[in-house]
Design a protein that fits this description.
The chain crosses the membrane at residues 12-33. The chain is mainly alpha-helical. Helix content is 96%, strand content 0%. It is built from 3 helices and no strands. The longest helix is centred in the last third of the chain and has 85 residues, at 89-173.
Amino acid sequence: MANNQNDTNKTGNFMIGVVVGSIVGAATALLMAPKSGKELRSDIGTQVETLKDKSSEWTETVMEKGTELTSTAKEKTDQLRQVAAEKSSNVADTVKETTEKLRGSVKDKTEQVAGSVKDMTDGWKETVDENVEQAADQVEKRADQADTAVQANSDDVAEKAEELADKVNSSMNH
């Protein structure tokens, strides 16, 4: 029983690592890719949807594993009941109490895992939303800087054009 629980914990930790690694990799790829703000926001939105889908899939997986654990616990409980009935009624009462505790524990653990997955997904969504906002702010700032630079250059070009026109006019008048 303890070994099975350790395997379940290892699997859960591995899945959490896969999720976190996927998110970090996707966010890094999105933020490092040379794209326009519109494309970046579109890509981030797509990634958010993908994360929502994956979190839904993982919630289903967690629920399925919980069902499997409940089913396994139920099977083991039935076996223990038969042995207990053969030996004495006191042992049967003890087994029934243990069974109820196991069911409650499995249910509690399943709910805890589902809650943890939801909390993690909500946290990732907030992080992605914050990153999208930061990226949009950076794009807007860079666009303003480019607009300012273009304006300054166009003023310089207009000035030079006037000077050149004045020189041409003065050389034609002489």
